[in-house]
Amino acid sequence: MTSHKRAPRSIVRTIFSRPVTETTSGPPPVKPPTTTSVDLRGSLQLRHVDAGSCNGCELEIASAFGPTYDAARFGARLVASPRHADGLLITGVVTRNMYGPLVRALAATPQPNVIVACGDCAVNGGMFASAYGVASRLDEIVEPDVRIEGCPPHPNEIIHALRSLTEL
Ligand code: SF4
């Protein structure tokens, strides 16, 4: 017969306690500052945040980073975490559901960073600016450093904007 040892209380407390690194309820009350003083020549790592897009912009971003347009040729890459990024590539007008996650992603992106607004919705609210589920325009939360207009923008326009940062 096997005997079952009880786990130490400290381990049980760790397993069932909430994470202490970030809060999960509600957005932080402050706007994180941003600056364009980061040197991105030759290498640009971006975390994409869909703040409430219709997914049209995502199709064009996927194409811009895919094998046909291949943004990586010009030093631009998408990364999995804002903590590993030089900045954020943001699509969509900011919906109520995505306001908090967007502000937390901004806070998690190391400073100095670059904010790229991709598509009319991110640039000026676009066709969904006055929709009931919209919390705010992007530029009321953070001032974009680069604006890519279009609904959706063509992959060439996305590449052109990213090349203006990588200078390749
Ligand atoms: S800019 Fe156009 S394609 Fe992009 S999220 Fe807005 S409506 Fe969709």
Please give a structural write-up:
By secondary structure, this protein is an alpha/beta fold. It has one domain: Rossmann fold (3-Layer(aba) Sandwich). The protein has five helices and seven strands, in the order H-E-H-E-E-E-H-E-H-E-E-H. The strands form two sheets. The chain has a five-stranded parallel sheet. Helix 2 links the parallel strand 1 (44-50) and strand 2. Helix 2 crosses helix 5. The longest helix is centred in the middle third of the chain and has 13 residues, at 96-108. The protein is globular, with a radius of gyration of 19 Å. The termini are far apart. 37% of the residues are buried. Residues 23-31 have low confidence and may be disordered. Bound molecules: iron/sulfur cluster. The site of iron/sulfur cluster has 13 residues, from helix 2 and helix 4.
Which terms summarize this structure?
single chain; 168 residues; alpha/beta; Rossmann fold; two-stranded antiparallel ribbon; 28% helix; globular; binds iron/sulfur cluster
What name does the CATH topology carry? Answer: Rossmann fold
Task: Give unreliable regions as ranges.
Answer: 23-31
- Top CATH class: Alpha Beta
Strand content of the residues, in percent?
A: 15-25%
Helix content, binned percent: 25-40%
Small molecules held by this entry: iron/sulfur cluster
- The overall strand count is 7
- Supply Rg: 19 Å
Shape: globular
User: Helical element count?
Assistant: 5
Mean pLDDT: 87
Second rung of CATH, namely the architecture? 3-Layer(aba) Sandwich
The major sheet is characterized as: 5 strands, parallel
Total domains, how many?
1
